[in-house]
Amino acid sequence: MADSNFIDYVKIQCRSGKGGAGSRHFHRAKYVPKGGPDGGDGGRGGHVILRGNRNMWTLLPLRYQRHVFATNGESGGAGRSFGKDGEDRIIDVPCGTVVFDAETGEYLTEVTDDGQEVYLLRGGRGGLGNWHFATSTNRTPRYAQPGEPAVERTVILELKLLADVGLVGFPNAGKSTLLSAVSAAKPKIADYPFTTMEPQLGIVAYRDNRSFVMADIPGIIEGASEGKGLGLRFLRHIERNAVLLFMVPADADDIVAQYEILLGELTRFNPELADKPRVLAISKSDMLDDELKDEIAKTLPEGIPHVFISAVTGQGLTQLKDLLWAEITDESNQLQLSNITHRPLDGHHRVSEEDAFIFEPSAPEPDDEDFGADDYDPELDDFEDFDDDIYK
Ligand SMILES: Nc1nc2c(ncn2[C@@H]2O[C@H](COP(=O)(O)OP(=O)(O)OP(=O)(O)O)[C@@H](O)[C@H]2O)c(=O)[nH]1
Ligand SMILES: [Mg+2]
């Protein structure tokens, strides 16, 4: 799996930019003997922002981008000039990316929509230049604010596919064959178990130009919730699907027992999965005649809609789509996650000072060279003393 293109887990070290220091400059010019303080403000450090991008469906690009560092703000300059702001770093992630703190494992946030921006690390605010600190009693403040420090965090990004329908079945149940029959996806199909090693998404066209997303995940076996088979690694992808389509092949020894094992594994993995709407499809029904179907139908559990399908002959596929569509659009099943809005990505973004970030820089620590505004010493109030870094 190491060289697979499907990456659903990455760890990234992120750092915002430091704020630039305010300047301690004094105006100097011919015939302006006492120009006064004119040190400008430092620029703010770059933010680190996560942005949902519907054109991505794995975290693969981030695999080669383990460190994301925004740049620092520049210091303020003479003549009240502002330092340049640091550059923000935007990390594009697929919709359905969940963010955890790598140190504590704490859940931080998730990015579900295309174009959605999550402000992860705030860049340090720039320090104020000395001209801000001039008062009637201290007209020559030698103090300017340092910039705020950067914030550094390592986060874990985990992708949970956002599909309307998740396929649940034992290996060889015919999941991939179904996906290839109802969508343009071309998953690998073969008569041995675990043909599908990583999730596949397909868009299923429905009537009147509507469509929904179906996810084929690797087969589930008994003990999957404890890590057997490809097990746990992919079970979490089902958490985010609106509807679960259980598939049991017509030639299974005991259809009901298989269905119950699957359901048991899912609920052991996450009890909330039991609340999701379910549809049961008996796959490979081309192997059954009507009489057998009637017999099987009688044994099926109540309260879950079922349909006999064959991905090979196309039997029951329209009925299946109708059933799935009804469940997806059922008000009581609505997951806001499943309606990804398809608006175009806009390249620029604006973050205002009031926006909340997950991680904020702490207040700046004045370094020793700085005089606090209160440390004013009249003895030093002599222009000849000022270090003047521009007009040397
Ligand atoms: N007769 C018949 N055979 C089918 C049908 N659907 C799938 N098969 C066969 O069943 C076998 C397994 O199909 P897959 O689609 O690869 O099964 P899967 O559930 O994706 O299996 P894994 O990826 O291994 O979990 C293949 O040999 C298919 O040709 C069907 O509707 N009728
Ligand atoms: Mg498969």
Textual characterization of the structure:
This protein is an alpha/beta fold. The protein has 2 domains: about 1-160 and about 340-390, GTP1/OBG domain (Spo0b-associated Gtp-binding Protein, Chain: A); about 165-340, Rossmann fold, CATH 3.40.50. It contains 6 helices and 14 strands. It has a 6-stranded mixed sheet, sandwiched between helices. Strands 3-1-8-5-6 form a 5-stranded mixed sheet. The longest helix has 15 residues, at about 255-270. The protein is rod-shaped. The chain starts with 8 loop residues before the first strand and ends in a 63-residue tail after the last helix. The model is unreliable at about 335-350 and about 370-390 (pLDDT under 50). Guanosine-5'-triphosphate (GTP) binds near residues 174, 189 and 283.
Question: Gist?
Answer:
With 392 residues, the protein is α/β, with parallel strands linked by helices. It has helices at 60-63, 175-182, 231-238, 255-269, 290-299, 317-329; strands at 9-15, 48-52, 67-69, 89-93, 97-101, 107-111, 117-121, 152-159, 165-169, 200-206, 210-216, 243-249, 278-283, 306-308. The chain has a 6-stranded mixed beta sheet, sandwiched between helices.
List its salient traits.
alpha/beta; Spo0b-associated Gtp-binding Protein, Chain: A; 2 domains; six-stranded mixed beta sheet; five-stranded mixed beta sheet; 20% strand; rod-shaped; binds guanosine-5'-triphosphate; binds magnesium ion
